[in-house]
Amino acid sequence: MDIILIPGLWLDASSWDEVVPALVRAGHRPHALTLPGMESKDADRSEITLLDHVGAVVKAIDSFDPAGGKVVLVGHSGGGTIAHIAADVRPDRVARVVFVDSVPPGDGGLINDELPVENGEIPLPDWGFFEAEDLVDLDDELRAAFRERAIPSPARVASDRVRLSDERRYEVPATVITCEFSSEMVQKWIGQSLAFTQELAKIRHVDYVDLPTGHWPQFTRPEELGRAIATSVGPA
């Protein structure tokens, strides 16, 4: 199965490097993306929008021959939002969306408009900005490595409104890999009809996988994350 790996904010394709081997061993073909404006710390990202990132994923989907079957989209954090929009654009080409510590927003939602913006981009904030749950297992060495590799994200990617139009997206199966909070807690929030879970509640078939760690399992538990993705996708 062709698996398109979509990074979250501040990250490029290399953030999936330690996850890829488990997918390859399972017989899959992973394709990690570097999204527009994230090519380097010096790239011009001043005009990059959320739709530019979605367009890059749709282009990747379209690069595969339809006769070869559907693809799987895996999105970490804000990358889960991008994956969900891409599934809305190409619902007939996506076999499954895997949300890594992420849930899909509904129409009009956004990734995060509360992040500090500097000159049209969002640098990785100081660690004190994040909740304690985000940072579980992210020790000093991993934090230093993350900060060294971090690339500022385009401001509009985080703050542009999500636009969805094809309800066939609800027929695309999904897997939610829960890290900061348990799957039991997420399903409890769905039962309470909390606003941020309402889009997820509309997806017809959702599986849950618990991977207890912080918000960046590709760094803190990469092997386990790779296996969880491979299991959710099924046989190659």
Automatic annotation (TrEMBL):
<protein>
    <submittedName>
        <fullName>Pimeloyl-ACP methyl ester carboxylesterase</fullName>
    </submittedName>
</protein>
<dbReference type="InterPro" id="IPR000073">
    <property type="entry name" value="AB_hydrolase_1"/>
</dbReference>
<dbReference type="InterPro" id="IPR029058">
    <property type="entry name" value="AB_hydrolase_fold"/>
</dbReference>
<dbReference type="Pfam" id="PF12697">
    <property type="entry name" value="Abhydrolase_6"/>
</dbReference>
<feature type="domain" description="AB hydrolase-1">
    <location>
        <begin position="3"/>
        <end position="225"/>
    </location>
</feature>
